[in-house]
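[job 0412] stage=fold_complex status=start
inputs:
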Amino acid sequence: MSLTTTAAERSRRNPFDVQRAVLFALLLRELKTRFGGRWLGVYWALLDPLAQVAVFTVLLGGFHRIVLPGIDYPVFLLTGLVPFYLFRNIAMRLMEGVDSNRALFAYRQVKPIDTLIARALLEIGIYGAISVLMFGAFSTLDMQWWPHRPLETFALGALIVAGAFGLGLCLAIGTNNFPQTRAVFRVIFLILYMVSGVMTPLRVAPSEWWQLLMLNPLVHMTELSRAYFLPNYRVVDGISAVYVAASALVALTTGLAMYHVRRHDLLSD
Amino acid sequence: MIELQSVTKYYPTPHGRKYVFRDLSFRFPTGASIGVLGSNGAGKSTMLRMLGGIEAPNRGHILTDELISWPVGLAGGFQGSLTGRDNVLFVCRMFGLTAAAMRDRVAYVEDFAEIGEAFDRPVKGYSSGMRSRLAFGLSMAFEFDYYLIDEVMAVGDPTFKRKSQAVFKERLARSKVILVSHNVADIRSLCDVVVLVRNGEATLFEDIEAGIAAYNGPTLAVAARKTA
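[job 0412] stage=fold_complex status=done
writing structure:
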């Protein structure tokens, strides 16, 4: 048994290389457990949105032809599902990210926030792949597959990621000492799924509820995602990109501040 | 050179802060393998975690220009849901190894640990003996100036102990160790000096036997310090 140590290994790496290597290692580690190490897991991740689009198109397609004339319901649905799921999954996966990687903090290179960044990157990759596949399928079916305002669409994507990352940080740190409270947040996201305009446009809700529903930034996200993607989608007055940006900024600032204060506590078990 | 400069470390508890070290300044002797002795809860593992860069002192600094390993022990280091192989791959990637070097290291650890097909099973199902084989094998696959070893050699069967001692002795020609162990025989055979951790203080004993005597009993300690 002999080992060769390369010269590169003996020389000090610069911080950027270390950070990149750590994120890469964590990303592959997350990839393994995210899909359970099986191809079935990959199919499931892709099939889940496909199945939702199919089921809702069958169930609600007729109703939506009346409410949203001239808009393909599958496109409408997917442009709401992807931002919502991206947001929810980043926030929920981050919430458990510190616990699921605690043993790896034994290596000085690995800090809690690295595991959270790796998790967020993986979700972005997954939803990127889902979008490419699904909108690719739409293009063959002669439906709209490319955003009508691409720049705004991608900027909105960045805001969603920033907001979800901030919220995920808050949840990871806030629930670190009380893991049993995490079930509550999972239920909250189940409710948010119903009231964030994922399945139906905000316009079909009674107009006296709009003000209340619009307190939820996720409503603005799904509505804006559609407005930027579909040329003839009309949003309710008061839907605002500034509100999305402000909420994302608040979440990210709070999350990073909490992390800065509690970063040492997260390391001990 | 490894130096602690007025290091204070405490943990918050419901009854206030529990101090492990208060304003501790200590310089580890250069070029010597160090055995760390101390009773349970004296702060040996905390010191190792600080030297390993996992936990930062609440106040003070730790200065070093050495390449120090992670704390090699039974607790931590392995993600239970991953297989032994995946854990080894993780560490290789973290150190930015090339694919060829990675194959080398994985083969080395697999060969060293001798845990058979368990290498491809999740670590959470390992016995402590298997964990220690994997932990020790993994640390030996990388070269450091200092290895931080926490009790890991005390576990395991005699054959494995002999083998790990032999490999480790060979490695000590180039590297040094900071060894935490209650097994005085390990300290005698691997270390050059002893550091006794007690009541938040660290005392250096250049003479191993004096250190061991001090660790064994307070009355003996006074006598040993006088003669040393």
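[job 0412] summary: The radius of gyration of chain A is 21 Å.
[job 0412] exit 0
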